[in-house]
Amino acid sequence: MAGKISDLYARPMPEHPMWISGGVLPKSGIMLMGGAAKIGKTFLLLDLAHNLATGGSLWGRTEYKVETPVPTLYMEQEVGEIEFQRRVKNRYETLKHPPPGNLFYTSRLKGFFLDTNEGQKILMNEIKATGAQVVIIDPVSRCMLANENDNSEVAGLFRRLDEALIEVPELSIVLSHHFGKPPKDAEEMVMDSLSPYNFRGASKWFDSPDTLITLASMDKMPGEWKRLVGAIEMRQGETPEERMKWAILYGGIVKPVQGHALQPAKGWR
Question: Which residues are bridge partners to 175 per DSSP?
Fold first, then answer.
């Protein structure tokens, strides 16, 4: 129902309106992270999940902090439980400590399509069972029946997600999505490898979320498994001009990279 602006003005502001400060992940918000296939998105997402569950700085960036550890649910729909277990074991054996107890997962759930009533019921049941306040869905394209190239159908998916945010107070959702293939005349075009226009499918993918994080490959250094550069755009925070850089080490450990000497690798990655 409608309220008075004077009451809204007089109401104290919430002390912690963000799960991740600086506007990166607002409470009751949606984040979309994307890049080309197999560049290492899952390892950044696993690191994000760990940061959310334990608190502290996000990806080594002191300006972006998880103020309060939050129960987090990672719903992977791509690699399967055996491969997901391998990645988790490699990560935490390299770190030499076990995963936090408030970090949960599902793997390749049958019938989990977010744009259906059954899929919404599955999501709500998993949130209720785990107490999760942040849900990571990887990748979202495996969790929908809609045509990802159709703006109206993608908008319908986000309406479903908004319904979940209304039903569970302060719930936030993180989605991963792939970039599209380069156009045939890509060699003749000047392209920003971190542009949100690289997301595969309809423009609603990058119109709807509160935060966009786009990723591209960089030339790795000795001892690194992968190196990534990323851009972040926020509706509820100040979008930084500086691009973020990370090295993904063997074992899946994410380390921030300082400096600006290296540039994104050429072409679409």
Answer: 32, 137
